[in-house]
Amino acid sequence: MAQSSNNTRLDITTLEGWLWEAACKIRGEIDAPKYKDYILPLIFLKRLSDVFDDEAKKLESNYGGREIVEKILAEDHQLVRFYLPAESRWDSLARKSTGLGEHITDAMRSIARENPKLQGSIDIVDFNATAAGQRIITDDSLKTLITVMGKHRLGLADVEPDIIGRAYEYLLRKFAEGSGQSAGEFYTPREVAILMAQLLNPKPGEEIYDPCCGSGGLLIKCAMNFRERYHNDPEVAPLQFCGQENQHGTFAMAKMNTFIHDMEAQIALGNTMEHPAFLKAEGALRPFDIVTANPMWNQDFEQKVYETDAYNRFAYGYPPSSSADWGWIQHMFASLKKNGRMAVVLDTGAVSRGSGNTGKNRERDIRKYFAEHDLVEAVILLPENLFYNTTAPGIVLVINRKKQHKGECLLVNASKLFQKGRPKNFMPDESIAQVAGIFREWNAVDGISAIVSAADVAKNDFNLSPSRYVAQNGKDETLPLEDAVVLLREAEEERRDADEKLKKVLAGLGLGIEEKH
Fold first, then answer.
1. HEC string of 140-207?
2. What's the pTM value of the predicted model, to 2 decimals?
3. Nearest of 241, 220, 345 to residue 295 by alpha carbon
């Protein structure tokens, strides 16, 4: 099949346009949330196949011809990054005219068998699958897709890892635009991930962990931030990356995404809150220098998840069943080294719910512990309508076990630092740089940021919402609907608990309440 053979590397605009053109070939045939499951593994296979071909050609000069090289590689897979059997390579797919769905599926599974690191990522989609007796994606559509994707090579000389990685991220964003609520399971907006990487500022040799990594975007932005500063200097100790993801399809995306970005990352499959994957030999949580995450906001977990925890993660209080935000924060905090730092994206209510209420409030009380122990370094209020599964603004919470500015907390109201976009708003690069600069230089900027003391936070009943301290247009925030719903659920949960306690007390007094039917 004809492919571009010029010596110029693909630029990002050409690559993005080409890959989106390929994706659109199956766009109408499959529901938007699903067609990413077919196109992403094929792009990955194209990259693997072209890189394998490049590496094999380099070996020809040492061993005297392709036939000899093929025999040697069949015996010793270590001579290439990933070994691809002949029937699994792109040119084999391009020659097929019938049975293409079955052939692609077999090719993916064959590659996974030969390369255990790829198992669970490239081999989970059945390109020959049917629904109601009809093929989900026809061989004709697959043939068209293969033809379009054959226009260019994705080999070592054709595209840099960072460029193809950026194109892969571009596709994830495009898929998120059409995925509705499910977008939040796999995609964090680019600007939020870049901002978090700049706040965390990874240092040589550090270990970075994301307990709910989605498609790996937050880990990847940390890697790209590090490369921009150290330029792949061989004298600089590399970063180490670990991530865990509960959704199988999203786990597969994370593995492919990190490989595409030329990263060595350990990605584990499973429910982090119930079964954390990264443990020390004695069974305790493995600690990391940096933890970064964008968990599902206000997630429901049964109280037994906290009450029966074997890792001492929730020592500062059990969050309500209606919102696991402070459960995730405590898991991340328990996963930090003694001088570690973390950044997490949550909804705005995580830093304000319960403050100002009479009586006890679980979230406020956990927040109080972190504030009184001088662990909260910064809270950044983001603009609204950035995220694909909600219009709510969200916050970035930065916690640091070894704060440079003791007794102080930086609160940044970045709610106006955005540009209108379709379908979502976005933070331009200069806004990201402005917020990161305020954090780095620890500045109070009129109308944008404030540096507050522990006494200030206590006076406001441990409300850490930036809009409480940094007013814009003289307005304070009203309670968002999402937060009101969480508070209502928490009140209902407390009422049920009180009813159960009352029943037990009355039963002990011989005054049991009869159930009404």
1. HHHHHHHHHHCCCCCCCCCCCHHHHHHHHHHHHHHHHHCCHHHHHHCCCCHHHHHHHHHHHCCCCCCE
2. 0.87
3. 345
Task: Return contacts of 314-318, CB within 8 angstroms, 24+ apart.
Answer: 316/366, 316/369, 316/370, 317/362, 317/365, 317/366, 317/369, 318/362
Q: Are residues 465 and 495 in the same domain?
A: no
Same domain, 204 and 228: yes
Q: What is the mean pLDDT of residues 103-130?
A: 94
Distances (CA, A) of 18 to 15, 29, 109, 260, 348: 5, 19, 26, 17, 38
Asked if 351 and 492 sit in the same domain, the reply is no
**Tokens, residue 247:** 């959704």
Name, in order, each residue with C-beta under 8 angstroms of 165's C-beta and a sequence gap of 6 or more: 220, 224, 257, 260, 261, 262
Q: 113 with 228, same domain? A: no
pLDDT at 411: 98
- 228 and 137 in one domain? no
- Based on C-alpha coordinates, what's the Rg of the chain? 26
Question: 148 and 40, same structural domain?
Answer: yes
Write out the residue range of the structural domain in which residue 503 sits. 482-517
